[in-house]
Amino acid sequence: MQHLLDIKNLSVDFHTLQGRMKALRNVSFGMKKGRILGIVGESGSGKSTVLWSIMGLLAPNAKVIGGSILFQDQDLLTLSEQARRQLRGEAISVVFQDPMTSQAPLLSYGRQMADILYRRREMSRCEKRGAAAEMLGKVGIPDPAFRLDQYPHEFSGGMRQRAGIAMALLTGPNLLLADEPTTALDVTMEAQIIHLLRDLQAETEATVAVVSHNLGLIAELCDDVVVMYAGEVVETGAVRQIFHAPRHPYTQALLECDPARIVERPARLPIIAGELPDLTSPPAGCIFADRCPYTLPLCRTEKPPVVVGTDGGLARCHIQSGAVAARVPGAVMPAASGPLARAANEAPLLETRDLNIRFPTEGMLLAKLQGRQPKGLDAVLDVSLTLHPGETLGVVGESGSGKSTLGRAILNLVSVTTGKVLFEGNEVQSLPEHKFKPLRRNMAMMFQDPNGSLSPRKTVRALITEPLQIHGIKERDLDREAERLADMVRLPRPLLARFPNQLSGGQARRVGVARALALSPRLVIADEPTAGLDVSVQGEILNLMADLQAEHGLAYLIITHNLPVIRHISDRIAIMYLGRIVEQGPAEEIFRHQHHPYTASLVQGVPQPDPDRKRAHRGLKGEVPSLLERPRGCDFVSRCPNARPLCHEAKPPHRGVGPHRVIACHFPLA
Amino acid sequence: MSGYILKRLALAAAVILTVLVILFSLLRLVPGNPVTIALGPQATPAAIAHYSAKMNLDQPVWVQFATYARNVVTGDLGEDIFTGRKVAIIVGEQIGYSLMLMVAAMGWAIVLGIPLGCLAAVRPNTWLDRITGVLSVGTIAIPSFLMAIWALLILSVQLRWLPAMGAGEAGDYGDQALHLILPAFAVGLGWVGYLARMVRASMLEVLGEPFIRSARAFGLTPQRVIFSYALPVAILPTITLIGMGFGGLISSAVFAEVIFARPGVGKLIYDSVQARNFPIVQGAVVVTTALYILVVLLSDLLVSWIDPRVRRVL
């Protein structure tokens, strides 16, 4: 098959303070015309660098030091900047990762799209507008002629990404590059965008390259796959080959780590031990040798050859060339800690009863003058939860579901409007801070963004002993305490002297865990504990959390949108939609059978890392409505596939189904 | 947009009212009776009683304030103690000169500073960037009264290229423009560096934003990326700064008007303070405050015109 784009021996260096980082080394692969290629890899794999090399928009400190990128018989790397600019947006276009930040905030969509058509001199302004409106309609934006005059901030997240796709396809490019096109979106939106991309590709016959770390997205969308690791292509092949019979140990390990693929609930999640090699002086042998379970001395000294498989795919591994015998690796997974005996009849550690949190959206004055309650939005509505010592409760929801507000309210960071929060049987909601402070020793928070929540000016040692200082605990030796905590979260002691920006994502998370555990709390509230982590590292943090729970009897309240992850660590799950719990029950049961249609669409909406298990259904229609426009009747009625008249009239009450499950639905799924 | 403008106008009115209250109370807080100060130690009790009644000082405080506020709103700012002329007319005569100086000073600073900042940001760490950096910091650091005196000595006294004193013949615009050059140069110079630094910093930040990379990825020309995509975002904080800077300009105009012997509100306030002519001081402060609030309002409206996101908040 003809290649639209051929990358040969592409090498790119980055000049950094640590020296020349060899970000890409001899990267070669082709893109077949009219197919969708997935470039998959974890952070530091160089997948984005490949994309920006094709566009010719590398960061100023990057330098292409060799190779060629053939596109329609010309080497892009030898073209002048002007000639490359002619291709950008015309022959090659890009869909960006985060539509929030990648669209000009001060220009209307009509203006931005007309700008993209600036080379079309023969088109009048009116024609350009028409073309833009047509394209917006094509990507599923209702009333495009009106929407054209709106600005990005007036679009919802999913609509913005649709508009981003419309902008990229406006000129009818031959090659469409998509950089993590669904990473910033909720699960139900992700499914919609995947379908849209696939339909548009079939219609326009464009060649598409999708860069992503998300194996489910790649499996569902792509025909061919390129797997990258630490700046090298380790394996290429057709999507079924890669997902069903991966040849490179890295591909195998990566697939094993994806929680969405793991059907059974294992005691421990698989991980890839070790870290990325230092790319300022890449190892002489195989790039993956340090983390590979099959490594033999040869792997460390000699670069593995490229071996072409029967299907035309390539793998760079000594096992494939026959130089190293494949053997059954030793125990990849550390021994499992025994399952915890959980006392369900024990008194609950944390309880919320009919918790409501309302944020006013207008001042008291105006409402008082008109003699009514001030308008507001209900961020949390009738939430009742219980959490026992040693138990893990997962709170799952999309953005705007109120899950983070709930976590903050429990920690008394947001005031509760009505309802109760009971901690160890005592009411603690809306206590003044001086009364609540002693309780904070028993309830800790693990924050979502580890780097954003760590002061950049403090060392790790100071950071993890900070809780002790805040609570004025003087009798303990802080240095010894820091070492104890570092050992506990398996953070190497030399890292104690470092600053947060010198840590990797996984290490920063561990500092976050250590800070949360510094005062030996009984309850830990973890907000998206693995967001932004690579799958190979994510397991490490979750395993660590499980070990610490077994050891100290911690109770976890985990707030997340990531269903596959929550499945593996939660005992019970509560699904939230627009601030209300729609379904609650034991994790295993909920994954086996869903009563609420929203839960069902979430569970089935997770993209499966298996090309043969592509989702048949189209996911949910529409988007999560704004909290300001809560639907009448059931909150979910605007998107529910089985909504009936009653659902438009009355909010379904919470009711028990079986001994452990609570749902809020008039017509639960059988 | 109209709702936003209405809200802003209401807010501006509230600010002016607050300023009036403060000015009024400050005057009452000053020790001593204004009448005895005005009339001097030799005043007869009859004269004091006469003036007290004339100035409403025998009324309760809130009545005094209401009268004062009503007068201010209707444009009556009181009378000059010495000549008895209306303060509003005196200030009105002078404000034009001050406005001219402020607009000229800020105008040339904007015309030069913003492009310099843009250039420096587009080509960071080049010789152009470094030179503008050094010059900017230099002009910010040198006090502008020093610049005024140097400019006066060199260009006017030594070289005799430009007139040194006054505002030029009334009605002769060319002559007035000539007289404006030196003071405007002296007052605006610090702002050139200030604006250049400010624009450079925010421009550098904006140029690193993902949407700039998107615009480039769609093949837009560098000029369009900079002027249509980056500059409108980068300029927003600068507009607010310029609006607020006008307040500072009113006070820095005082020295320029004194050094160059120009008429103007600054000079008027300076002279009136020296002569303890309080009604004029008070009236001039009210007018300049209103002017300042008006400029800030205009700059905020300009920001909301450029940035559709701002219109929704407040």
TrEMBL record, chain B:
Cellular-component GO terms for this entry: plasma membrane
Coiled coil: none
Transmembrane segments: 95-122, 134-157, 177-196, 233-260, 280-303
Keywords carried by this UniProt record: Cell membrane, Membrane, Transmembrane, Transmembrane helix, Transport
Domain ABC transmembrane type-1: 95-303
Gene Ontology BP annotations: transmembrane transport
Keyword Transcription regulation: no
Localization per record: Cell membrane
Cited Pfam families: BPD_transp_1 (PF00528), BPD_transp_1_N (PF19300)
Family that this chain belongs to: Belongs to the binding-protein-dependent transport system permease family.
Protein name: Peptide ABC transporter permease
